[in-house]
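Ticket #4471: structure export looks truncated?
Reporter: QA, pipeline team
Priority: medium

Steps to reproduce: submit the single chain below to the structure queue and open the exported record.
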Amino acid sequence: MDPRSLPSLPAPPFSSQETLEQLDWPWFVNELRSLLRTAPAREHLESLVWARDTNEAQRILAEVEEARALLRKGNAFPLGAPPDIRPHTLRIRKGAILEPSELAEVASWIESVEAMRRFLVIHRQAAPLLHRHAERAPSLSHLVYDIRSAVSPDGEVRDEASPLLSSLRQRARRVHRQIQEKLQSYLHAPEYEDLLQDRFYTLKEDRYVLPVKTHLRSRVDGIVLGSSNSGATLFVEPREIVELNNVHKLALLEIDSEVRRILREICDNLLAEADELSKGESFLAHLDLIQARALMAEETEATVPGLRSEEGLRLLGARHPILVKSKRPVVANDVVVAPPTRTLLITGPNTGGKTCVLKMVGLFALMARAACPLPVQAGSNIPFFERVFSDIGDDQSLQEDRSSFSGHIQRIVQFLDSSPGPSSLALLDEILISTDPDEGACLAQAILERIAEEGGITLATTHFLSLKSLAAEDPRFQNASLGFDPRTLEPTYRLSLGQPGGSHALHMAARLGVPEAVLERARRLSASSGPRGLEPLLLQVETIRVALEEDRRKCLALQAETEALKEQLEKSWTELRSREKELRGKYRKKLEAAFQEALRELDSLKKRHRDRASGSSPAKAHQEIAEARRRALSDQGPFNEEPEEEVGSEPAWTDLACGDLVYLPALRTEARILKMPDRKGYVVVESEGFRMRVSRDQVRMARPRPKDSPSDSRSRETRTDRLENRVQIQPRRAAEKTPGLDRCDLRGLTAAEALERAEQHLDAAFRENVSRTCLIHGLGTGVLRKAVREYLARCPYPISFRPGSPEEGGDGVTIVEIDLAGDRQDPGA
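Actual output as written to the record:
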């Protein structure tokens, strides 16, 4: 809709009707009104919309932001389309009785109030400011109950409204049925077939009658209550139903009396709550306007600006709402007038957007006064202006004998006489252009300086060259220009702060279709009139600026593309890490299952070889258990939760000897050689106190490391310990009953029990690197001593043993020396 076709609006005290119309305020009000649901808000929008002061505007804006947050989550206000009950409440205050249909509308309206109040209570956490209105809203649910229990939604009084009404209506229906039955008998009686004009009955004066042919009236006994327009039919009340009609009529009168009594009682209850009903109207109207502001803000992608006067005008990425609503591409501009600047002089080509900038800033000032978010970027600020003035367009009038110049001067004089002050905004379009350029420029400068002295903010468009240079002399003034592309002869509509712009009149005239001959004549006249001052320089600056702006846009596009690629890569990396974590979880479960299976195998081997009666030698049993342990630790393969480490080269066994370090990839740890490879290619190694027999194919050269590097050792310990803790496998149960590893008491045990404990004790001694231990078996019959020493003789570990000296216990003990260097021949080799 064209803003110029909209009706005029009453002016607020801080502006004038002419200013409102020049700044497209009627258009904005019409857009806001289209979003309202309640009649009071629509009718009184012009007076309801204005905030009284900065604090109220900030509070309303905060409520609007809460409403926007609810809208984004799909929680619109449950306003519906409540009826307008103001005429009803006015009649109630005058003592009138409302019709049932009117009471139904009142009930529907109260239900809207209650629904809105419940909605705010439900969302009190997300919208605490809006919830305060619910706390102050009237509670009118009891009135809804009074109305709904007596009146149906379609506006009929219910039978259940009172016991008397129910009884009266039952009696009336009973009499009505009797009348209908009697009339039906007349319609179907053979003797009445020729007397009736048609086979129906009707009502006349609330009494049931038959349509009798006029010339046969004497044959029907009854009372004539009327006739048809043609006179051919008389409506006769048969004598036999006169009394029934009387009874029915009396019943209807009694029903009407009882209905009036019920309606009067309800209206009296409403009258007692008339003030609460008015509060409910204000409650709905305020929230309706809050949601309308929120909807408008969402449509225009608006933000809440600051309203601090001391920061001046700072509009970032500003877009005119009319252009935004039109869905056309909009050039967003920064408009800044910050201290010490008080006046922004906007120059540039005709049709380049200068007037649009003025109207946009003026409309934003009015929207801020109305507590509406602005189509600007975050960080913007606009003062809460106490005076908004504009002089835009031609104000000449033949009827009032007013020229363009006098019209502009009269409006400016009125503004200056009103003492604008520091909280004023003045918008002057093509200031004093309709007079002599030299005198007009001087007068314009004087007017602008006067407004600046008052402290107000001014935006003025001009083509006067002297005003363009004013910014270089007075810090209160700053230049700005709308862009022009010399290559395409098209305006760019982009505002550049800090530099003046050329008018480009000839270029714009060519664009608008002025004949080339006229343009050529104008160019010759311009060249013959001498230097053009700043115009050629401004054109060069504009050309450079357009090129720089093009480069800037390309850089921004490249930056955006880079950011998008970076975001895509980060997303892909996150997905890969998530997938890796998922796979590791699966592998870990498989690994744990494999380890559990290895544990079961170890337990089975222990049980199978614990019984000496099985004939298996302890050495063979231990060898099988050690081999099972090695498989358990080496089976982790791809299920290891850590990334694979780089594996060393195959060792040159001729260059190695017992005691050298090698690397075991399966265990991801280093080990020390205890026995070189045998004929079958197996080598005995020790790692962290644990000895094992592994294939030479599973051995790699140890990675070189700095001398005396404790960190490597700690890292190996950490990995090995982690494997030990995860696998939780021990080659033998530790000798829990032995207080220390320097001795093991076997007395009182059978031979089998003693050998098992001795084996456990030696296992523990090997793990803890104990080089000497004492087995106490006693003298006795010598059976236990013999069994222990026979076991030690065939033990697979690199040990030597002897009877104890007299000081050590004599022949009642056996001293075992453990060769930690491991140079004894392995029986399993």
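Status: closed, not a bug. The export was complete when the record was re-opened. Leaving a note from the reviewer for reference: The two ends are 101 Å apart (CA to CA).
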